Every structure is written in C-alpha cells, then in structure tokens.
Model the fold of this input.
Amino acid sequence: MTTAEVERETGGAGFRREIRDWLEANCPPEMRDGASGEDAICWGGTSWVFSCEAQKIWLERCAARGLTVPTWPKAYGGAGLTRDEDKILKEEMQALGARSPLDSFGIWMLGPALLKFGCEEQKLHFLPPIARGEIRWCQGYSEPGAGSDLAGVQTHAADQGDTWLVFGQKIWTSYADKADWIFALLRTDREAKKHLGISFVLMDMRTKGISTQPIRLISGSSPFCETFFEDVEVPKHQVVGTVNRGWDVAKYLLTHEREMISNGANVMVSGRSLGAVLSESETGLSDPVLRGDAMRAEVDTLALEMTLERYKDQSEGGQGVGDASAMLKYMGTELNKQRLELVMAAEGSNALTWQDTPASSWLRTKANSIEGGTSEVMLSIISRRILNLPGYETWQNSFKQKKKSCCPRPPVVSSQNPRQSPDCVRAGCGKALRPRALAGNGRCRMGRRACPRGG
Done:
C-alpha cells in the first residue's frame, strides 16, 4: 500500500498538513541543508558543544514536541506517532531538507531495549533524558577476546550484596571518551553456560574506576576507545532485565544496531545522492562504465530502502526486524563501501590526497563490515535463521545416522590414530577419513568403507 493510499484510509492527509506547517514554522533555515555527515550530527550529552545556535534551537523544539523519538510513547519523551505517521514525518523532513535534530546510541539501540526489557522505573528515569539529548550513551560489548564470539565476554561483575564490583576491559567502544553512560555486557556467573551467565548493566561513565583510551584509525579519526573497569561499584538496580539473562537483551539490541548500520547505505557525502556527488567529480558521469556502476548502486540502494521499510511494516509493535537485520546490515555495509569506492574512482588521483577529499570516509567504510557483527557472521545468520540451510553439525549428525551400519563395532584406538575405524586398522590403511573425504564413494584409500565416527 502506498503512502497516499494509507493517508486516504487513515486520515493521514490532515497529519501531513499539520506536520508540514509545523516544520516550516520551526525548522531554522540553517538546519534545512539536508546535511547528514559527521559534521552535521547532533549527538547530545552533557559535554556536547552545538555547532551553532540554530542546531540547539532545532533540538529543543523537536524534543518539546517529541519528534526526536517520534514513535516512543509520550510518557517517555516521544510523540506517540504511529508507523504511518512516522513515515509521513520523515518524508516531510526530507522534502524540506531538515537535518535530524538528534542522533544517538540511546535512540537507536538502548531505547528500544529499555522499552522491551526495562522496568517502569528505568524507563521513566532514562528514556526522557535520551529523548531530550541530555545523556549520551556508548556500547560496551566487544572485548579483546570476545568480538564475533560476543558471548565469550569476560569482564566480570562480582556480587557484593547491594552492588556489583566490575573488573575488566572493553574495546572498540565508540565515543566512550565523550559518553555520559555505558550499557555493557558483564559476566555475572562464571559457572553458568556461556550464554546464560551474562547480565546487561547500565553504568555512569563518571564512576570511580572507569577510564578510556582512544584508538587512532587509518582514517585519522579516533571514534573508538578502549574502556577499562577497575573495581567499579555499580548499583544492582541498574541491571536491565533478569540477572544472568542479559544475552536476551543483547540479541534484541543487536537487531536494532544492525538496522541502524544498514541505513548507512542511504547516506552520502553531505547527505547528497551518489549521482549528485559524482557529477561534481573530475570525470563526472561522462565515463559510461562509471555511470552504469553508479546507476546500479542507486537502484540497489532504493531496493534496500524499500526492503527495510517492508520489514518495518511487517514487524509488530515496533519490535524491530529480527533476524532480517543481518541481511539488511550486510547489504547496507556492502553498498556503503561500493558507493565510496565509486566516488574515489571518479576523483582519480585527486582522491589520494587527504584534505577535502572522500579518502577518510572511504577508509572508514572498511569498519562497516566489522562493527555490529562481521559480514561473515551476518552471512552465517542469514543461512541458518532466514534460509534455514543445514549447518555443518546438522550434516554431520545426518551422515552418522545414514552410515551407522558400515561400522557396527566401536572404533579401535591405536597409537597411530586414536580414532581410526576398525576396518582401516585391520587393513593397514593407517588413515582415518574425515566426513569431507566421503563425498565420493565413502571409502578409504584401501577400499574399505570409512567409519562415520572416525576423524
């Protein structure tokens, strides 16, 4: 159903006129340039310095109306808009060229998690300040030994009665040196299974024992940090959800993070389309090969945008897009890299200089396929949870059942190979076959059928 059809059925035309008039009357002229790059973002927080007075006014006016988080309930600082009304708001802002009044990890990630798993006291305490841009959050997930294997986190929270005593380290913590609070995964039970001994905890970055160290990237910037916790005392009421069940919160939050990263493909230099940027480059769009690649990238971007909207429409109650976030994140990051590579190609040798070129942005895109889960992890999620393809373990179990009769006796342990099949030991083959070697006739080099329990 198109937006126009929705408006006719729901009376959205009246809301469109209302929000259009409000935007026209309240959005400062300086905030109507459509800019969406790093220099144009308003992150908020206690240490945030506004780029100009207009940016501050725009944030205050939108926050007062709940438009920084339009779909959140009014009790938590939002406007209580429906999904269709939110679409209309975004369309009207885009038509006016209005900048986003506020961007933050609190809005993109923590907010949805608190709305689903937080208690009422946590929602009332944390959500309104997030909506007003008063608190800036960072994410404490990855550790030196727990990146793609996120459930392997070892930063420990010891039970001290009314508090947790936290000790450990996080890494790749975006903007930790500028954040007011951090939401982190901490191991609260070292004896439990890997995914069950984790809790989702909120911590004030000003707490004694927390320190940060920026990490300089090849792009020249330092948005990432190492974050250290040395005997940090954290009140127990700052655990979100159930103690030792933080993995449930973490997984849900990751779907929103990946959805957010996938939106990166829709943003170009200064918020302009790829075609507009390339038309101003040295070669422009005169190169037919470059022009064709640019057109394909633009079409793919529109397809991704429509797919994202479709999944959002299908999700119930604003609960996120679920496992589809892996597909959206993978496609979004690959498109973002492709778009910047096209810009670099169009600029030619001029792009190799550092000043006033897209080189730093191009280098930054390399991190897109790592943050929020590597592209390899995303493909694994797509294959298992969306396409329902059998994994290696499933294939191996199926293979064992089918080949069970080929080796009725238990494996013989020998000094040469402790897991050889009996037939191979008696025949003197001396080589147990692994499942991968059985793609042909399932026999070893001596012509004996291999034991499924071997290798």
